[in-house]
Amino acid sequence: MSKEQSYVLKAWEVTLRKTQQAKKRANSVFGTVSVSPHTDNDVTSDENDDETTTNRSSLEEFYLAERVLPNGDYYTGQWYDNFPHGQGKYLWTDGCMYIGEWYNGKTMGHGKFGWPSGATYEGEFKSGYIDGIGTYTGPSGDAYKGQWVMNLKHGHGVKSFANGDAYDGEWRRGLQEGQGKYQWSDGCHYTGEWKNGTIYGKGSFVWTNGNRYDGCWDEGFPRGNGTYKWDDGSFYVGNWSKDPEEMNGTYYPSGNEGNLEWDPKDLFSNLSEYTICSGERVPMLPSQKKLSVWNSSKRIEKPRRMSVDGRVSVGVDRAFEKMNMWGNETGEEGSDLRKELDAELMRLDAEGFQSLKSSHLPMKLPKAGRKQGVTISKGHRNYDLMLNLQLGIRHSVGRQAPAASLDLKPSAFDPKDKIWRRFPREGTKHTPPHQSTEFKWKDYCPLVFRSLRKLFKVDSADYMLSICGDDALRELSSPGKSGSFFYLTNDDRYMIKTMKKSETKVLLRMLAAYYNHVRAFENSLVIRFFGLHCVKLNGPTQKKVRFVIMGNLFRSKYSVHRRFDLKGSSLGRTTDKPESEIDSNTILKDQDLGFIFRLQKAWYQEFTRQIDKDCEFLEQERIMDYSLLVGIHFREASVARELIPSGARTPIGESEEEAGHRLSRSEVDELLPDPSRWASIRLGTNMPARAERTMRKSDTELELVGEPTGEFYEVVMIFGIIDILQDYDISKKLEHAYKSIQYDPTSISAVDPRLYSRRFRDFIFKVFTDDI
Fold this sequence. Notes:
By secondary structure, this protein is an alpha+beta fold. It contains 17 helices and 34 strands.
């Protein structure tokens, strides 16, 4: 295709979209035109009628149809542009049936879906998915009425089970989560908090005999503080746990002595009989049902073509014939369209087509970077420091300690709560002999970090094995901008960062708020801390090295092809490396970003909620200069390492060849109903998404987010908020004042925490959006 033809084609696509939108608006205002159903034979029976049929269909694309499709499926209802559109009924050969509203071949609006098993769903649909308010009734009697998002119960809903149980409350991703009431068939009921389909948090269980338990729960059983009350007024108050060593409490009689022999462990055996019914699974999701392609004679041997924005142009070639744009006919409609095309061509010529050309340059995977870090072996300048660190961690984590409860006293967060331990080379009764230099070891708030590791489900043995095992640590080749050094464990699970004294003070000051925040929000995106320690080396300098142990965000089964550090500021926010030196380990910045990330709706809603909560927490702690670290794994690439675009969502009924390489609807449908796979993904970890390429109009620093091009790539994303230990101290205030004289104050990183939080969120919510 010549350059001129490609320009004309681009202009035609723009004009075609405008005219189709105008037709839809006209149909919605003046109603639709219906004609008698016709078949392929009707069109081809008489060559003399071909031109008449073509002209008539160009005016009457919205009509009633009744068709038996090639695979045996049956459809009757309104039809538009080769797809069901409007009200219609579709019957699949396997017995599934849908009656309701359609939009461009997808169930959209209100409708009813029936399965051959007798199960039914009646309610709202969106883009082929059960989405909105609706009622599902299963074949064995299960029923759910409430809110849905992408085939999953999400929001408030009421479910009655076939065994007589019932639940009324909040749902998330298909499971009970939030506030809700579950009533068993025998009349006992629980009212309180839920998480991932289990009783978790604070709530009350009431038996039919009047007894009740009020308190904390974990995975369906009492855990933590709680009170068991009898109907006669006596009660037992204490700390509850499945582990007898953790359980303790006091019994208070009401006057009679009838319950003195009661054992608190009996409560657990009693509750084990009350399980949460999982209910029925939807046998076949409506979004998994594909439409058979109906090829009209007007489209025979006219393949679909990808538009510049990545969408498949439905009926493009037919529209070419009907408009007769390149012929000698000079009808009024053709003349008007020709004028629109000329105007569009002039506009495109004026812009020089630079963005159009550049947007179609193929993207390639960056060259793979080497394994990060240099192994610290004997002779390395920090070899003794590494041995000291490993000895201290092994001592801190391995020593016996009482079982940690997640309910901590304020004294546990006191910065003065620290333990010094001397490690001479010959050893002591508390420390082993070693070959390193003598040193002193300090643990900051040990009980808090022990509880954090428990909260983050970190196994102590695995933790010690990663950090203190036979494998040496790796030191990153260059220190960070702050001057800190970073070390990685050999399994890439943990990162160790040396700390300035000011950062240590900030972490200790905000530790209580941090603990409460990550405990309240399991999916918090802020970096996870596992320990804060200090090594004091013997010698004339008495050097102190403080360090924090964090989770390594990019430890994943997926290789990370691109890394971005995003703050929402523009000054200096670009990499200083030439293109030839950029590899998969290079950290790119705001102005290097050339994508918008589209998350599935349920994930996007959770993402925006969590970003808001995390930013509110950091703002309250007067923290600024943090960033969202983002890693991208591209799912599809050619042998030549060229990225394969996925295009936009393909209309239902396209062949695999037309659909191209993308995360298929069936893959999404397999993922959505399986809670175990959702749990393994977690917000910010191994999340499927689509990355839409963007192009900037200019190289000015004012434009952080470019214009979408419609070019999509299937990706897996990893992200989290890092660098949360910089408060708005006097040095940052001076930096802000100095740079504000030279640059736009809103473009610099050092700003007031409130302004920083607002700017950060505004930028992130432009870069991330929902995949409609």
